[in-house]
Each structure stands twice: as C-alpha cells, then as structure tokens.
Amino acid sequence: MRRALEAFLTELDAVRRASPHTLAAYRRDITRVLDRVAGPEKPVPPSAWSRELLESELRILYRTQHAASSAARALAAWRSFSKFCMRRGVIERDPARAIAFPRLAKRLPRTLPSQELGRALDRITGEDPGTLRDRAMLELAYSSGLRLSELVGLDRRDLDRGTRLVRVRGKGRRERIVPVGERALEALARYVAAADAELAKEGTTGARAARVGDAARRTPAVDRPMFLNARGDRLSGRTFQNVVRKRLAEVAPGLGVSPHALRHSFASHLLDRGADLRAIQELLGHRSLATTQVYTHVSRGRLRAAYQRAHPRA
Questions:
Q1: CA-to-CA distance for 255 and 273, rounded, in angstroms?
Q2: Is the pTM of this model over 0.85?
Q3: 313 annotated active-site
Q4: Which of 20, 171, 293, 307 lies deepest, with the highest CB count within 10 Å?
Q5: Any catalytic annotation for residue 147?
Q6: Catalytic choice (73, 79, 110, 260)
Q7: Quick check: helix, strand or coil at residue 166?
Q8: Is 142 a residue of the active site?
C-alpha cells in the first residue's frame, strides 16, 4: 500500500496537477492510517485497507476534536486513493465508498468593510523596501482577488503594466488573466524600484549581508519572483500571512484577518457595486458558479437596494 501511495501521489501531481498543499495533505491523511496498521514506514498489505480501519480512523479524528472539515478532507483523500488502488488492481473493493461524509457547517466568507480597508491600505506609507513590499502585496491581493499561493507564486514577467493585466497560476495549475487596479500598479512600481536598488547595492559588510540577494542578483530582472524576502528569495506564504495580520489588524480587530479575507472582500465589493456574478467567477478562477454564489448571501445590501430600485411596490 505504501508503494501504491507513492504512485497515487505521482499521478495527482503529474496528471491532475494537484497543488503542493493538496499533495502534502493527502500524503499526511493516508500515511496516518497506514502507520496505525503497521507502524511508521512498515509494509502494509492491501487486505488491511478496510472499511473498519477507515471508520476507526474517523472516530479517532472526532475524539481528538478535529474539525469536521479535517475529517471530510481525510475521507476525500481515502476515497480518491481507494479508487486509484481499484483501477490498478491493488484492492478488489472500495472500502471508503460507503462511508458518509460528515456534515459541514455552512460558513459565510469573512469580508472586510471597504472604506476601513481602503484607509488601512493608505496608512502604509513608509519608503523602506519592506514597507513598500507589504503595501504592494496587499494592494495586489485586494485589487485582483488572488489566493495566497497565487500571490507569492508570481514572477515579474507575469505582470503586463501596459495592459494592466497579471497572469495567475491557480488551482490545478490553471492559468487566468486578471486586471490590476491603478493603486496596485503604483504600489508595485515603487516596490520594484526599491527592491532593484537594494539588490544593486555593493560593498555591504558582514557574511550574512554578502549573501543577501545573491541569487536574485544573478537572475534576470524579468525572471525574478515578484515579491522577495530579506534574503532575496521568493517570499513564503507564511510571511504574507504575518503581513496581513500585522498591517490589517485594525480593520477587523479580534477577527484574525487572513489573506483569504482580502479575496472574499474583492468578490463581495465587486458584487455590491453591480458586477456580474459570471464575471466574478472568471476573475476568481472558480470552476463552478455555485462556488461563487456564496457571495450573494454576503451582499444582502446590494440585493435590497436592487429590490428597492426595481420592484414597483417596494
């Protein structure tokens, strides 16, 4: 079963183009079950992969107070792996098929008030490279509705300033083209100029300073990552999460603002101002319109205003 798992993950990566986060989660969820059967890294026979085993693992997840969403993700991984093993003739029956998914609470996406968000972005006014980078990242994330992984995965060549468009690689490595607002373009231009000036500096002292930006300096400007950390490497998603919490904490105090809240706000604010739901679907890169329709529940103010304008007896 461990050999089958490696083949399964290879197929997910090469054929289905699953994200690194999905691959890591599936490996973790399936390996945890296999380790429970025979211990870490020990062989597991196909006969051990049974419904009783998976149901037992689900009960353990519930007892250890894992969220229902975590249990649902684990079951999705087990189902996908079981189907793969059946196609390859590793097992004869799918033990995960008859296991019901846990009920998930329907949660509306968290959005940020547009005026407060705008004022918070305008207050990021420092001219040092770190502050300029933070402002550019936040402006671009909100301007174009990017996921965290999409934002940190951008390269400079992905941005076309002439057409004000950015090429984004989303889930399943699907590409889409998204407009970029004027404020975001201005913030990006200031940051890129400061980052290049920092990389061009010579004569820095100290072993660590000599290493900062060395890889980035050897890379042609157009091929560089859009956002760099203090070492001149591509910025990590964790760093951007910290930037969002630090810079936008005042917008929604106590709510734990996340990068995805900027994406939700992008969609909700567009809908509030009359944007077509299909257009928002394309901008967000959703495969299904049903995924985008959740924002109609958030934007009740727009629906109420439309009713007041259109209904003859409103």
A1: 25
A2: no
A3: no
A4: 171
A5: yes
A6: 260
A7: strand
A8: no
Q: Which among 142, 169, 295, 302 is annotated as catalytic?
A: 295
What span, in angstroms and rounded, lies between the C-alpha atoms of 43 and 304?
Answer: 60
Which pLDDT score is estimated for 203?
39
pLDDT tens digits for 182-237?
999 999 999 999 988 887 774 344 444 444 555 555 666 777 899 999 888 899 99
pLDDT digits (tens, 9 = 90+) for 98-146: 898 877 666 666 788 888 899 889 999 889 999 999 999 999 999 999 9
Structure tokens at 62: 């519930």
Reported confidence tier of residue 256, pLDDT bands at 50, 70, 90: low
Q: Compute the distance between CA of residue 140 and CA of residue 146 in angstroms, rounded to an integer.
A: 8
pLDDT value at residue 300? 60
Among candidate residues 135, 147, 247, 264, the one labeled active-site is 147
Contact 230, 213 (CB under 8 A): no
Rg of the chain (C-alpha set): 23
Beta bridge partners of 28: none
> Contact 109/257 with Cβ under 8 angstroms?
no
Q: How many CA atoms lie within 13 A of 230 on its CB side?
A: 6
**Helix runs in the chain, H state only:** 2-14, 20-38, 51-63, 68-87, 114-122, 129-144, 148-152, 182-200, 207-211, 214-218, 237-248, 259-272, 277-284, 289-292, 294-298, 300-310
Q: Is 260 labeled as catalytic in the residue annotation? A: yes
| Identified catalytic residue from 263, 264, 269, 302 | 263
Half-sphere exposure of 137 (CA within 13 A, CB side): 34
Assess whether 66 carries a catalytic annotation.
Answer: no
Question: In this structure, are residues 263 and 284 in contact, taking their beta carbons and an 8 Å threshold?
Answer: yes
286 annotated active-site: yes
pLDDT for 53: 94
From the candidates 171, 176, 183, 217, give the one annotated as an active-site residue.
171
